[in-house]
Amino acid sequence: MAPMEPPMGAGGNRRDFMRNGFGSFALVCTFAAQSSLRGSEVTKSSAPATSAGRRFQAASPFTPFQRDLPIPPVLAPVSTRNGVDVYSVDIKDGIAEILPGFETPIYGYEGVYPGPTIRAVKGRPSVVRQTNKLGFDSNVHLHGGYVPAKHDGHPMDVILPGKSFDYTYPNEQDAAMLWYHDHAHGRTAHTLYYGLAGMYLLSDERDVELGLPQDEYDVPLMLADHAFNKDGSFRYAENVDLGFRGDTILVNGAVSPRMTVQRRIYRLRFLNASNARSYNLKLGNGRTMLQVASDGGLLEKPVSRSTVLIHPAERVELLVDFRGFRPGSEIVLQNIDGESPGTKSVMRFDVESGGGAEEFVIPTGRMRTLEKLPAPNASRRWDLGLFTQSGVQWRIAERGFNPDRIDVRPRLGSSELWQWHNPSNRVHPMHLHGMLFRIVERSTGVVHPADRGWKDTIGVLPGETATVQPWFIPHTGRYVFHCHALEHGDKAMMLQLEVEK
Amino acid sequence: MKRVLISTALAFGVLASPALAADEVISGLDTLVWDKPAVSILPGEKVTWQFPGTAQAHHVASNGVDGAAVVDASWTSFTSPLGVPAPNAEFTFTEPGTYKFICTVHKDTMFGTVSVGVAPPPPAPPLPLSQQPLGNDAPAPTTFEKVQEDKAKPKLSKVSATRRARGTVRVKFRVSEQSTVLVSLKRGGKTIKSVVGAGTGSGYLDVKKVKAGRYTVQVRAADVAGNEAAIKKTSITVR
Ligand SMILES: [Cu+2]
């Protein structure tokens, strides 16, 4: 039996005991049995068989909470030699079963939606060979990554049909939930909608030191709204003003699914991969969730939340503690900003027994110390607006995208204050490639504690002026910054910066 | 709004025409369709586009013509300003032909035709299933949680301690549900040794390397939800 030693950082105070039980004291082993103790544990039901049965009984393919949450496959490296993980991915057509009994044609990394999850480790570079087997240009952007310009997936750097490109990712930044998606010029609203998005989970030793849930208790969740045609295909209609709005919420490619959870702590990592929809998440009737991370990884301290607003391309990582619920309990995660029944139900958590003793911990203190930025050496104001010259277009500072023009030339290592000024009545999730920023000020109120970590995307609200401070590290070269409402970014809310030595 | 209308009309050199019964009014809607995507008029008649009560940006613009009609050149550059709601726009058609209009913000769904003095285009054949919407008909959720919180304490029973091999104390117990169990050997109020285990039903934990002496054995159990059982104690002498 394990001798009792408090793990590093967990402490042994009364508060930890209240939150974590004896689990906070040590890694707990199962005590030796006199009789068959395991007989009373419920084995996890095999998902496919039961869900197939349920699907047949569902009144409509849109009935929520009928399908078990799918977990995208984790991509296996083709080589791990010399400390580098090498992956190979085909960008190709595929068929997904999203509505039971229907086939939905998609574009997919490895032909699946969501694309396979890449699990990378800080300090171990990865190389992803992407082969374009589609009939048109494609490329891949690692969103949130510190990536050399050549490998960033700039809109004009494309992989021609039939060709490959080896994207090299240094993985030198702190752990964060990144994601990868198509970024070919003018086409992202179409290609992401039809499936070209996958998750990239970069981890480091801090996750382990803090005792954050791992493996099956660490769950990536990709949110996206869609609409369908009668043959099961995705339905898309362009809306340059509002951006696309679907009447159905998919989580990891399933219509408002159910997720069976044990009486454990879960790390739920949400990515909003929708074209343009923002979500306002609420658990049950307003149960608290503990946010531990945002776009750029861990927050300095966990933040307790009862609702969570997540704009396109943002990530929010929440710890949810299901230990206090008896088996059979059901808790819905709703989108309280949904405008229709189908856009209100995100997913449901169904509590089952089993899972044994909790070995993970809910952090209570400091998780991370954020680096101090250098003092800003310039201030810029970017006006966001809709124009009708040369077709209908959103613009930044009254400029559309021009790949032959560099709009900002900051020095490597410097920082600036960027003021996003949004007099329009739409949210603009403004995203900077290859670098991170901090939110400094918002005209709509104080910066929420959960928004004080490293960010790569900020949802600038209607009528809001928001100031961010980007830090132009770690690479020189040409990058873009743009609105991640994809219909806005494609038309033509995107400018270029070149970080110079 | 009135001024916008006049300036639009003047800018494109449209002749003011007397109101005719056959003039058409077309509404752009926030469901991203035109209420009348195909209208027929005679040369000299007027079409007005309006956007009553809309909360999304719309407008109307020329999308060219169908067929080789003699076209009023001003149609080619016809476009009205965006707005929420957008101002009304109008155009008086003088030449026969089939004129196409569009809202460029919603080009996949907001397009239509004005047939001027020519036969309207035949009704389109029914769309294939791949272009007909399959709307989400799920009912609105009403219950957001069906929850039973676990507030019940686990039951800890049958606590006993026995000497095993040299310096080892085996502490047996029974817990009524999945719990984490903490066994402590105490002397003079101080914890000398302790062991943690987890499980359910009957079990035991061995405390090893215990020096000779008389100890109080304390057993605590907390269930998954953190509810603690009443503490149980016994004693043992290690030789
Ligand atoms: Cu935008």
UniProtKB/TrEMBL annotation, chain A:
It comes from the Bacteria. InterPro entries: Cu-oxidase-like_N, Cu-oxidase_2nd, Cu-oxidase_C, Cu-oxidase_fam, Cu_oxidase_Cu_BS, Cupredoxin. Pfam families: Cu-oxidase, Cu-oxidase_2, Cu-oxidase_3. Gene3D superfamilies: Cupredoxins - blue copper proteins. One of its GO terms (molecular function) is oxidoreductase activity. Residues 97-205, 243-322, 393-500 form the Plastocyanin-like domain. Keywords: Metal-binding, Oxidoreductase. Belongs to the multicopper oxidase family. This is Multicopper oxidase domain-containing protein. It comes from Solirubrobacter phytolaccae.
From TrEMBL, chain B:
One of its GO terms (molecular function) is copper ion binding. Keywords: Copper, Metal-binding, Signal. One of its GO terms (biological process) is carbohydrate metabolic process. Residues 31-116 form the Blue (type 1) copper domain. The keyword Methyltransferase does not apply. Gene3D superfamilies: Cupredoxins - blue copper proteins, Immunoglobulins. It holds the Pfam family Copper-bind. Residues 122-144 are annotated as: Disordered. The keyword Protein biosynthesis does not apply. Residues 1-21 form the signal peptide. This is Plastocyanin/azurin family copper-binding protein.
